[in-house]
Amino acid sequence: MSTMLAQVISEIKDRVQFTSRVSLFLDFDGTLVPIAADPRVPQLDLGTAAALKLVSSQEFLTTTIISGRAVEDLYCRARLNRLIYAGNHGLEIFGRDLRFVEPLAWSRRAELESLCGELRTQLRNAAGAFVEYKGLTASIHYRLASEADVPAIHAAVYAAVAPNGALFRVSRGRKVLEILPRTDWHKGAAVLWINSHLSERPELSIYLGDDTSDEDAFSVLPDAITIKVGDAPVTCARYRLPDPAAVQELLLWLANQEPERLHRA
């Protein structure tokens, strides 16, 4: 166990053990799996899949995977029915009798698909870059592209979105540009919605994420255990873990907790 993980566990163990209901949120890429050059490749390794299955079986834990990936994509990579899946940065939510799709994002699917078609044409000569249409959002991936092509890729995306600026905005990630609908919805709003719609309201939330979009969730959960994964220099999270391997260890620790309040009951 790393020093950083041991410190996090030392600081949070009393809160976890004296709480009867915990809502656990996990980003996918960079949190459960390492960032890959090709975003189509990542799969849960056997250890993390086993840890996630064990966590999902605990009655005191309600676990949500929340990601920029589409819900169908997330489910295909985890295939656990007891999880909640929040895809497209929380614009769509599915699992454990919860159903939600943000209505403005849903209404703009046709415009977004057309925009993606335009960008595929414009970027056809940028080797290593590709456009991923995800129904409610889109991603332009360029981790495999030449650094010399990156300025032109950025310029093409911003130019394509500009005429649709009332409907969409561009957000920068790690070697990816996201085209998102202009709504008041984000990962933070999704987290609050999920917690308010659970059949048993959680007394404690735990959120782990590595992406800039996770900061929206960190900021709306001031009393939660918020954990930034990776080495980003600035974050609203209270704690840090170095990598997905440490996340796997934390999940195993969580899955083996027996809340004292439940034990006394």
Keywords:
Rossmann fold, eight-stranded mixed β-sheet, 2 domains, globular, four-stranded antiparallel β-sheet, Alpha-Beta Plaits, alpha/beta
Q: Could you explain the architecture of this structure?
A:
- This protein is α/β, with parallel strands linked by helices.
- It folds into 2 domains: 19-102 and 185-264, Rossmann fold, CATH 3.40.50.1000; 105-181, Trehalose-6-phosphate phosphatase related protein, domain 2 (Alpha-Beta Plaits), CATH 3.30.70.1020.
- The protein has 10 helices and 12 strands.
- The protein has helices at residues 3-17, 46-56, 71-78, 103-107, 109-122, 150-161, 187-197, 215-220, 244-255, 260-264, and strands at 22-26, 61-66, 84-87, 92-95, 98-101, 130-133, 138-141, 168-172, 176-181, 204-209, 225-229, 239-241.
- The strands form 2 sheets. Strands 5-4-3-2-1-10-11-12 form an 8-stranded mixed beta sheet, sandwiched between helices. It has a 4-stranded antiparallel beta sheet with strand order 6-7-9-8, covered by helices on one side.
- Strand 8 and strand 9 (176-181) form a beta hairpin.
- The protein is globular.
- The model has no long low-confidence stretch (mean pLDDT 93).
